[in-house]
Amino acid sequence: MKSAEATPRTAKGGLGAELRSLLVSNIRDYAMYVALAVIFIVFTIVTDRLFISPRNLVNLVNQTGYVAVLAIGMTLILIIRHIDLSVGFVAGFLGAVAAILLMRGWHVWLVIPVVLLCGIAVGVYQGLLVTRIKVPAFVTTLAGMFIFRGLLSWVTAGTGTIIVRDPTFLQLSNGYIPDLPWGRNFSFHLLTLLLGILLVVVFIWGQLKQRQDLKRYNFPTTSPVVFLGKLVFFSVIILGVTWIMASYRGLPWTAVIVAVVLLIYNFILNKTRLGRHIYAIGGNPEAAELSGIKVKQVTFLVFASMGLMAALAGILYTSRLASATPTAGLGFELDAIASSYIGGVSVGGGVGRVTNTIVGALVIMSLTNGMNLLGVDISFQYVVKGAIFVLAVAFDVITRSRAKV
Amino acid sequence: MSEFILEMRAITKEFPGVKALDNVSFQVRRGEIHCLVGENGAGKSTLMKVLSGVYPFGTFDGSIIINGQPQQFRHVSDSEKQGIAIIYQELALFPELPIYENLFMGHEIMKGRIIDWNETKVRAKQILERVGLDLDPSRKVKDLGVGQRQLVEIAKALSRDVQILILDEPTAALNEDDSRNLLNLLKELKGQGVTCILISHKLKEVVAVADTITVLRDGRVVTSLDARARQVGEQEIIKHMVGREIENIYPKRENVTIGDVLFEIKNWTVKDPSTNGEILHNVNMYVRRGEIVGLAGLMGSGRTELALSIFGNVPGYQITSGELYLNGQRMHFRHPAEAISSGVAYVTEDRKLNGLVLIQDVKFNISLPSLEKLEEGVVVNEHEEIAMAESYRKSLDIRTPSVKAKVGNLSGGNQQKTSLAKWLFAEPSLLIMDEPTRGIDVGAKYEIYTLMNQLVAQGMSILMISSELLEILGMSDRIYIMSEGTITGELDAQEATEEKIMAMATKTTEGSRA
Description:
The structure holds 2 protein chains of 2 kinds. Chain A is mainly alpha-helical. Chain A has a single domain, classed as ABC transporter involved in vitamin B12 uptake, BtuC (Orthogonal Bundle). Chain A has helices spanning 2-5, 14-25, 27-46, 54-79, 87-103, 108-131, 137-155, 167-174, 190-216, 224-247, 253-271, 273-283, 285-290, 295-321, 332-342, 354-374, 378-404, and strands spanning 162-163, 323-324. Chain A has a two-stranded antiparallel ribbon. In chain A, helix 4 packs antiparallel against helix 14 (295-321), helix 5 runs antiparallel to helix 6 and helix 5 (87-103) packs across helix 14. The longest helix of chain A is centred in the middle third of the chain and has 27 residues, at 190-216. Chain A is globular. Chain B folds into 2 domains: 4-242, P-loop containing nucleotide triphosphate hydrolases (Rossmann fold), CATH 3.40.50.300; 289-318 and 331-505, P-loop containing nucleotide triphosphate hydrolases (Rossmann fold), CATH 3.40.50.300. Helix content of chain B is 32%, strand content 28%. In chain B, the strands form 6 sheets. In chain B, strands 6-9-10-3-11-12 form a 6-stranded mixed β-sheet, with helices on both faces. In chain B, strand 7 and strand 8 form a beta hairpin. The longest helix of chain B is centred in the middle third of the chain and has 16 residues, at 176-191.
């Protein structure tokens, strides 16, 4: 969204030419939205509108939650040119740890921080291997994938699937935010609607401010018509989704959790020194080091954050299934990496935005959700996902190499 | 046969938004050394890419005629078949493979269906002798020096029965000795009937070897000078290149006031832990306030290693002995961050490799080492950042559409200015510049020299590493000369000459290791 602003305005040729040049220079971003739109339209038609039903959309949000937080952590890892293959089973294992602790009678508000700390510990362990001993991340985390898969089957060996009954814990991925006391007078969820309207206001305010800044420094801006079109388009989408949620049961807790995580990561990446350092390391690690950036320290932090996100994903997934299973986490890493790449993270590193990663996660999960609705065989689903994944990366590589010429 | 081995007629090549070549006609006589000169972005490399088929037939207008035959190259291999070999700045050798495999890569000597390694080695030895390299062909390329690698590249071209040899800045990375060797080799090859096209920024070399000099400016041929008919001077070429005369490429400094010692290292000895060999031996040097100190030496003499070991020791060398003083205080920089916060900056030798983040914009790069200056709480203030970058864009004349343009899209000179702006914003008291004008055009060089003079006039100290002797002589107040990891001499600007420096730079001392 932001990059659209950086496109030089084509003075002559009018609106058509401007739209065309916007399309050409932002094809990478737009492709993701087009893919999402196509998936929505196709599944809506072939499922006879079941896909677009409020119930299923809420379902989609809850399904996307755990992949979204993993993908946010993964985006940082990929930006600094590393990879983490272990996240799936780390999430699976830590989800099982949460289930076991709950089963042993630990209080839920103790279990969650303890499991999140365990996640950080896992990240610290892998981060130390990568930065201190210089074991390549691919090897470290491939080993991690085996280790945590092993640990997961070990802790669930005696019990098999562990059922979770704690109501608070189950709310995380199945519950909705409470309504305001006077919301009972309405046929819809008042707080959800108000939050949606607030989001639109904040969005428009932010865009206007950004545009004002660009003008202030004489940077090229899009024409008023295109700008207005963009504001209307996104506002309508936000309000549409809000209305669907509000007319059902309200905003799911998962959406709130993902939004908070997203806000924090987006803030760090775009507004803080640490964020600049992360992009610099991804763009050119040698130059970053010689600019005084402590590359090892930042890399270590990014791995620790990945561990934290894996733990959160594990909690969300366990909550969603209301149980921990011996195979939880299988293939999550692929979903997370694919979400990041579909969301525009560059294979070469140094480029990527967590906001776009969320859209990437929606693409992957709406595909999964739609295929599940259609009862597509799981083995075929893997083939489709793998193909989409490699297509997204190929598209990225092609568009980026074109841009260079 | 026609007098011209190669004719390029009315070549026009356009990129989106730019006309890189505009109706360029270019003729090369058989068996001559033809130099192609021009500022960065003048179109030299583009013209050679058109010739070699990197830009296939049909993506440009005009025609290419070799030995009287019109050609349509669709791929680099098509031009290779016509005997054209191009050697780029970035060498295309396989470091882990032996020389003989490199030489015949892609046209291996076969015995039936298998490679005849014995014959390969024998032929490799012969070709190496032809380029004046007395080396065992089974040595790995990674163990060779830069100068030797360049010669291996030429040998590789010769192994293919080359008719037109194109060299793109072959001496940019070479020291004076290796450069001289290479130029002598070109003259020898000329005697053997090989036609040479040489792209170079070093006008002294151009004047020394060229038969014809073609000058490009802004994608057009400005002139073609016949250097056989009369002596062509450097000033004349510069005039054509920039379209104006630059009387002195080293601006004079006025009212030089040199203060106390700012920076000093004593008995600085450094080992490379991977080989356990000494890279620097007992180095002593100091830099005073307001002084430009030149550090001369051949490639591999340890100058960059010295700078890196001072500036936070990123390569992880083992500093076995030595003391570092800044402002009279003993310091120990464990990371560039500590050096930067103490007021030391290092402009790297290779801005693309480890100087700049090319995929990021100008302001990002300038603010990178000093983000804390722009912070309000934990937030980097983007307004201040833009204002800061804009002020450097104006004061250093960084030619970019905006400070939000990607650095990778700027020309070499403007990248170098961005790199300088980045370190100026860090407000160092000691600025270490490693090859500050490598690969940038005459106009931008002059601007950078002027800036250096302004900086020292304001009391900054500069330690300038350079392989260009004229630059060392033209800019320095005092000169250290390094050879094989030791300081072999120290000269005042007045007493220094090219000969004295070269003599010290080639001196081998006891107790030092290569």
